Fold this protein.
Amino acid sequence: MKNQLLHIFRNTPFGRETLLQSVYFCRETGTSLVVYIPRHPQFLMYFQNEVVTVDLDRAFLRSPKTARKHAEDIIRGGGLEPNFFEPKGFTASTLPDIPVDFSYMCCPRTISDLSTKIGLGYIGPRVRKIIKNCTFPVLIPTPVYKEWKSLTVFFGGSHNAIQALTVGMKVSKLSGFPLKIFTQAEKKHYSYYQDILKKNALYDGIEKGEIEWLFFEKGKFRENLYNVPHDTMVVVGAYGHGLIKELLFGSMMEEIQTILPNNMLIVGPNCTP
Amino acid sequence: MILNLEEAAKLLAVPEVTIRRWIRQGKIPVREGRGQYFFVKKELEKWARTHNIFLHRDLENTPSQYEPDENALHEAMRRGGVFFNVEGKEVDEVLRNAVSLCPLPPQVDREFLMEMLLQREKLASTGIGKGVAIPHPRYPLAEFSNEPLITTCFLHSPVDFHAVDGIPVFVIFLMLSPTTKAHLFFLSRLSFCLRDQTFMSFLKQCSAQEELLQKIAEMEDEISGEKGFLPASPGAFGGP
Amino acid sequence: MRRLFLSLHERLQLIIIASFVGVCGGLASVALNRSLSAVSTALQPHTGHWYGFLFPACGAALSAIFLNHVVKDIGGHGVPEVIYAISRRGGLLRLRSSVSRLVSCLLTIASGGSAGPEAPVVISGGSIGSNIASFFRLKDRHRIVIVGCGAAAAIASIFNAPVAGTIFALEAILGEWTPINLIPIAISSVVGTEVSRILQGNQIPFQNRVFPISMIDLVACLGLAGLTALGSVTLTRMLKVVRDKSNTLLPYAWVRAGLGGLLVGLIGLTFSGVLGEGYEVIRVIIEQQYSPGLLIIGLMIVAKITATSLTIGSGGSGGIFAPCLVIGSFTGLFYQRILLDLFPSVSWAGEGYFALLGMAGVISSVLQAPLTGIFLIVEITGSYQVLISVVLVSMVSATISHLFEPFSIYHQELIAQGELLRPRTDRRILSELNMVELLEEDCHVVHPEMRLKDLVATVQRTHRNYFPVEDSKTGEFLGMIHLDDIRSYLFNPYLYNTVLVEELMDREVPRVSLEDDLMKVFELFDKTHSWSLPVVQNRRFLGLISKATILDHYRKELMVQEEI
């Protein structure tokens, strides 16, 4: 009941699709939806150790008169009650502060740049900053509304992957959708991953057969990704390793977001599920 | 000793959200590692002392207060023991014999206990009617025993306890509880049993310890079963 | 490296970071100072031409465009933002603020806008401090101190006045004096000053002669204090008027700033002395070389006040310090001329002396920070012999202007929004406590179709006095039952099976939501005389919030804040 998802409404057809996606997420998980209709070209998010300035794409501010009605229609159409967020704190009179204690936030792949840039493999710099700092998972929806019927968590054994798995389990429990775990073994044995899961008390579901574990020892990661169903929500941890290591070797999140067109729930390094 | 967030929150008796905020604001000494927070207990205690913050010591194994549970009554009665044919013609005499039978730790001053019991009788008779008396000290005293005791004595011959209904008493339950809460708990449980007609008639012909305790245990299961009208449920004692 | 650093004692950490921030803050202000003089020199040959009056307009418009569209750093003057960040956001400031304001301020002032370079260096220094503190993963409490260090270093180095920098940071920015923030700020201030001295030489900005001060001068000071108070109140009010009017009349920031600049340029055609930061004029006055008569001086005061209000009020980027000094020195001079005319026989202490006092008076009143005014004036003029008169004028002037304008221009905006939260105040503590922390969730929910009998059973089981009523199907919150209201029915067994919870509950009970401000919640407590209120979100009951729990947390919060 206390779970809330923040959605920043863009009053365009594209924004409609993302809002539909948020509505679906909220309805399935019993989360309450909080919609912010921007009135200023920027807002600030004060995280624990950094303040993130979000410059909004112009489309967010377009036709403010119809925005509220459009949003209400979409939300009511999805069977939820509209609930709009009014910023209370202002750093300057035209610079609202958005609180950061939500349980989820919905961000399209880009929030500052024009939506023409949206495509696989691109996540805007502001969205990345939010992911890096936030304590909640970030929902990156597909550009077009698509329902999901299961959850797939990518598990590579890191601390962040454990967090992602915890989030995945929580969402799966709330929504009642089945959970799958996807692991691409990196020169390590099955038991290595098993031990990590057991140590963190996450193995029960697999043992009982409630959770399916897709474990790949062979083949390339990119190729194996084809086994991820089309109607699943991907849950993945971001920035699990250091920045330098990620620049050199690439990260799992980057590959996934380049290849999979699914809905994604990204669990940042500061996330506290 | 290293504590995690949850344990620290418990120790300081504040919600985890508050601890997280204190960490962010830099008000509380904390260590960070692998994206998680740790507290060194010594540091935390020192910090709490300098800021006058009260610590909840639940984490340590300090003796906690007695909390009655579902089988508390018959366990207390087992500890206290059941005795038959207890002699005595007067209230004083009966109580003296009961106190001497009561399995108390050796350091307990039985004379003092006796005095406390008599004081209570002077205020008002503990004979609650139907031939039953529940003698107990005026104040619940932990020094008699840390765990509650109920000593059951079936009297050799009924004694006039100046009970409310004037019926001579044939059985006494000597109750020693460490806290008022526990005392009230046993009082209400016992009175629940004594209200039961079949139990009363059973009591009148009872002749063996195990028999009595068995019956009490059954009655207690019954009470725990119907939570609705529980005179005092165990949960009520746990509240903050 | 960072790990090694983090193992040091917290005070040592702070001191090291503070000196580092001092260097950066010093460099920022030296950079601004240097580029200001460079650009001004470059523009110098053109200012005499007919088109010279357009410069301030172009500069202000460019600066607005730069802020709003190039670096996208929309915001106010700077100092209120720093104070807001400190009192509300744990001292977090944006990285872009560390450069953006310097550039925009350069454009505004070098082109002739009437403002000073102080506010931009304060936010720049503060922002540098904040980001360095974040890099070292300092927590809010320490980050705030480091932001103060940045501001102190910037002010200290731009005026070559370490004590004034320290006191400004403590008095105007942080609002509290504790050992934990005094030491790092003083250190950073000293380091910042030293950086500027190494790069620019140790100059006292306004060197003056020794004044022969007599008793009568001290008495005369009091009159001056009245005049400076008047001047500063006028300035503060005009700033407010220009800002409000221009904001409502002109929607585009660059048009606003441009128009403001144009008007300043027009004023500058007649009174060229009002343009720019105006340190040259002050120097002339302090050295007792300013010759024009009483009327001109009076007009100069009015012109400077107008020009400053237009520049800053229209959205130009710049600080209030320098204009205050100019206005103050003219006011002092004005007063001295009047004295000369009225009492020609008395030998007064000289123009410089009164100009200096005038500066102290105006700056103390406008900032409502008398200590900052006193030490700033003493340090930038290097004359400790006038200390007594300076203290006198500053204090009296600040007191008088306080009657009319109780808050400094830095705080006005924040106070209007209710966001000025000084440390250890009631508002501050309430703003820090979060509704989620105070929520009591161990409540027993009852349903409307339950009978009184079931309610009595629930009452027996719990230690609560309030029972939320929820619809058993939808989970919607319907109302509350307060034990006090139903006490008389509780002991009436005849009603046990006939009365329903629905009939007992209070449907109109006031409710609060998780986003509500605690101040509001307290108002509601007072209004309804209740001890507990239900927290309802999306028509669902989340928990209770009660005065007793708030007191508990409130007290803990106070205790935790104590610095030991």
Observations:
- The radius of gyration of chain A is 19 Å.
- The mean pLDDT of chain A is 87.
- DSSP finds nine helices and 13 strands in chain A.
